[in-house]
Amino acid sequence: MKYPCEMVKDVMPLYYDDACSEETKRIVEEHLEECVSCREVLKKLKSSTYEMDLAKEREEVLQYHRKNVWGRLSEAIAVTMLVPLVICLIVNLATAHTLDWFYLVLTGMAVVASLVLVPLLAVERRLLWSFAAFTGSLLLLLFTCNQFSGGHWFPLAAAAVLLGLSVIGLPVVVCEIPFRGRIARNKGLLVMLIDTGLLYLLILVCGVYAGTAAYWKSALWITTASVAFVWVMFGIIRYARMDILIRAGICCILGGIFLSQINALVHWILEGVWKGGLESINLLVWNDSTVLNANINFFLFLSCLLAGICLLAAGRKRKGTKK
Length: 323
Ligand SMILES: [Zn+2]
Fold this sequence. Notes:
Layout: H1 5-16, H2 22-34, H3 36-96, H4 102-121, H5 126-149, H6 154-176, H7 181-185, H8 187-210, H9 213-239, H10 244-271, H11 289-322
Helix pairs in contact: 1-2, 1-3, 3-4, 4-5, 5-6, 6-8, 8-9, 9-10, 10-11
The chain binds zinc ion (ZN).
């Protein structure tokens, strides 16, 4: 062979795209007649380009189809929602000579649209937009209901709804937002901070409605004790630099201690007396409610402790094996 394979392989893509000179073309063709290995290279080039073209074409068809179908679907849904709205508008005006309950239908439809239309119309980050639209429209619906019924409960309902939605949806939504730097590395912390803030907001709003001094003392202390426990667990799970089994073991034991003592703690906050904790355990007495609770809590604590010890042992063993 006149030319080395490496040289021919280098110009093969140009030859395949018909982007080389007549001279190069002739050299490659001459070489191909004699060389099996270079013929294989050309064959592979042909098949891979063909597959790539096919995949591209397939994606284009799918995209067109998706756009077309979704566009039509969202139009159909919008029309389906618009018709009852117009009917309600006319009926409300005709019967009451003003608009009142129509606003309930309107905001109710907005909630439906946030769940059905927004995901179809949003180009990217569908979950984020749908969640934001759903939260906003739900708050609007609650506000309209509050105004329609002449109530004063909107702040309370809004704070409760915000906390509930945040606990369920915020972790997923936060993952959709492209944060950078420190926040990107501490998304869990961000969610915890927002959830804690919303929980205290709810306690605050409830306090404004309850309006007694006793409420503040009990609500704030019981909430803070529970929140502190959750934060300790979060800190261990997210930030402790230990084997995952050891972290699980520690959380299990701490959970056992907290859950078995929370009744007594709440009792202490409310009445100033520690009652129903480990000191009340008496496995021979099962007919007194305080002792019964303490006995059950004791077994709860024991199970958590045992599970925790097993996890710690497994974690230590795994660490030993890794070393
Ligand atoms: Zn060759």
